[in-house]
Amino acid sequence: MKVSKKMPSKTLRVFLPVAFCLYLISSCKTSQPTQTTAAIPEQDLVKDVISSFSANLPQLSLPEGADPKSDDWNGVDLEEKQPVKPLYPAEEAKHFLLPPGYRIEPILTEPAIQQPGAIAFDGNGRMYVLELRSYMLTADSKDELEPTSRISRWEDKDNDGVYESGTTFIDNLIFPRFVLPYGKDCVLTMESDADNVYKYTDTDGDGKADKKELFTNKYGRSGNVEHQQAFMYWGMDNWLYSTVNAFRVRETPGGVIREKTGFNRAQWGITHDDEGKLWFQGGASGLPSYFQFPIHYGNFEVPNEFAKGFDIPWGAAIKISDMQGGMDEIRQPDGSLKRVTGSAGNDVYRGDRLPESLRGQYFYGEPVARIVRQINPVVKEGLTTLHNVYQDQQSEFLRSTDPLFRPVDMATAPDGTMYIVDMYHGIIQEGQWTQKGTYLRTKIEQYQLDKVVGLGRIWRITYDGKERDKTKPKMLNEKTSALVKHLEHPNGWWRDAAQQLIVLRKDLSVVSALEKMALNSPNVQARIHAIWSLEGLGALKTETVQKLANDTNPRIRIQALRAGETLYKAGQKELDANYKTALNDTDTDVVVQAMLSSKFLKVPDLEANIKNTVANNKAAGVKLVGEQIMTPPRVTRGLGIGGELSKDQQEMLSRGAVIYNELCSQCHGNNGMGTPAGDGKLLAPALAGSQRIQAHPEYAIRVLLHGMDGAIEGKTYAGGMMASMKEQPDQWVADVISYIRNGLSNDASLVSPNVVAGIRQKTASQAGMYKYDELIKLVPHELQQRDGWKVTASNTASTRIGGNVSPTSAFTYEGWSTGVKQAKDMWYQIEFPKETAVSEIQFNSAAMVKRGWVPKPNTPPGQRPMVQTYPRIYTVETSADGTNWQPSLASQQGKDGDNIIALNPRKAKFIRIKLNQGVDNPEDDIPWTMKQLKIFELN
């Protein structure tokens, strides 16, 4: 090893790969559906990348201030190196190392797709590819949030095993977080730094989504692209889960509801096993993050859940040592990773065309180590321990000697094999960790890894003597009765897809067949899916659950307890006996499930029953779960998942819960889903998942103060009307509305008594109850449509590395900043397509790390110098022509956090926020920032 003392050559040429140029060109031409042939051999795109590397290699030296004796730099080789060049897929395949009998083949590659991050299949077996086309195109993550990514859809029409026919299903996306097929020609997805999940549908069958609908909101978070929520996933229990978010959502006739869950601590990957238990994949930890029990039961801390040595990867000799952790994390002399540091993608293999020994095994990728790992979950006394199957051989299931192999997702495929998503990329860490002066940046430049962009491959793993299943799924075109038969399929993918479609169709004609299958089928997996299909249709009966809870098969008894939770929450309290009886079951796993369900449902006498169970059952899992139910471990919230509620807020919600359950639940239902009144009607509208309730709080406050009568959005209710409760004090109104907005599967802000008082005063002249059509015109509503808006600012920068330099970033979690110190007369302006009466402006100005501060390694967050970036003194002005301005608000001071600006609505084409005063202290270099900007108007 030799450390060069030379300075970097000033003649170093920086090349923009032809591949990147092609990528930029193609991103401008994919607004229409494209039919593309995925040619496997001799890709022109790879050829262009190879030819783009410089012949003049850089000379490197330690960055200024680096300590050559530190673990990161001691012994670093900084000699000139040949660049790492991409290989054609056929050549890359020769670099894979697999156990005997396994084969790997490409099924879709560049130029048809670029930088794939995940895949998913619809009911006809068509493969949707999440193409993260803006990910790490430079070492500085430049343009990472440009709208150049897409979701493409691919078919193997000639059934030769290669996906040759594709279309651009959704184009011009900003680093999309996931793709979830959701019925016929429809997917759910969302973009980075956004808060809304949208449903995209192809209504005319041309392979391109032409209809966009809001599915749910309040789903996102801020942070770099590796730390945001991802992988929206349909669980066997018919709820939708994602990484990062500590809640689950579900579509109901009344709207999308949500429930809080434990913290999954995951980043990129969710899958489930044959029992329906979710497995979450960590990111920076390099390990599975949560897998012991279903996440909706909360968090349980299990010691020693990874076998000894589990965190040691056994990748092939890569030699380039491009690991973020520096030399201390690198195995010598082969340059491979010696401790897991990143992971992405996961799958519990549930197919039927690989060896039976793989069924139920857990697989995940470690793209830094260039491996796919096979895990054997060993369950003993109700607790799971994970073992690396190839640890004793100091190996992994799949390794590669190609440094560009980046496994980021995997899936059991419709053909019964396993697919591996290979981003085939030079850099696999986000720009926050590749900044100039870091060890990783030095290695990137040494091997020109930043030049390898715009590629990507998807591989199929097969086994000798086991041919892939060539039966083409056609579930989207089949009758629901045919879908029921697929619940018996030996490939778990078929069962999952059939169940999802049965539930989405809401076709009750198959209920009888499902009940027969759930109770009597000799196929245990079919019974499990039939149970959950009934649950998803709202057709699961209490007597059916009671029969299943006494089944001879413990796996079925467990599913009965889980599925019965839905009925219990809806008021079927007679299931109490089943949960209490199961606490004394002869099977340890059933006992553990009974404890978890009892805790989740708050079954009466919970503590006494748990104590008795722990005393009489010595199994390790029973003891651990029982003790942690009685004394929960302290769990802190993960990064970005909102702060804990204050004591006052908790007391407010507690008072609101009492009011709701004593008064409101009679009509609106115990769970906010509405009380059935017969003939398909409800006594009152559902409040859970209601967009009206979660929108501007003025709607709910007005209804509670003055009442409402008649139809709501054209729908009538058996209860007839909502009575006025204006005799109740402001605190009472604030308590119950806060509970409804935050505690009934909703996720909206709490309401203060002062806000109630203000609306009470404003509406004092209201005579009688509101009619919906009248009320909705009086309540501010958020302007969602920003097409045609012209957004400008006096100064513009992003609040994060690699962000968009655009004023429109203020509307997202990414955020907008002046980029320079606040000064008098700085402004932020919106020009509307037509005159608009803006009634309210909301934005968040959060504290941020002082600009120019360079952190030392492992600096605690509390020691980072923070500055308050709210606007010091500002006013709001409106204009008809953008030249002559009138004040719409007296000067006022901004504040840290949320800023809510109430305006006297005045129709105008232009509106702007203007600083009347900047930052006075010349030493305080503080910009003005805004995130999550929202504009409200009156109809």
TrEMBL record:
PANTHER family: LARGE, MULTIFUNCTIONAL SECRETED PROTEIN, LARGE, MULTIFUNCTIONAL SECRETED PROTEIN-RELATED. Residues 651-744 form the Cytochrome c domain. Residues 778-913 form the F5/8 type C domain. PROSITE patterns: CYTC (PS51007), FA58C_3 (PS50022), PROKAR_LIPOPROTEIN (PS51257). The keyword Acyltransferase does not apply. It comes from the Bacteria. It comes from Emticicia soli. This is C-type cytochrome. Residues 1-31 form the signal peptide.
